[in-house]
Give the backbone structure.
Amino acid sequence: MSWDDNYDDIPDDCLHEEADIDILTGRALCHVCGHAWWASDAEIEAQATHEREYAEAVEREELARRTIRENTNSNVSRTPNADEPETTEPQR
Ligand SMILES: [Zn+2]
């Protein structure tokens, strides 16, 4: 089965739920049926919002990962042994 066969067989009821919208060009392409069209302002807005939220989620994840690393580092330097080396020295 080729993509061309598939294209012709796709009924009109494809909801284009797998559509990929280029927010820069406003061009939309459905990965399921291969249908391409000019996205409406609402569709572009929805896609832009989706991409923004995705970018923010990635950023948050990145930030969380960095924060964990920083906390780990500061925890290491804040351990009693590191801050108060004298606790073991008076026993000399
Ligand atoms: Zn479609």
Summary: The pocket of zinc ion is lined by residues 14, 16, 30, 32-33, 35 (CB under 6 Å).
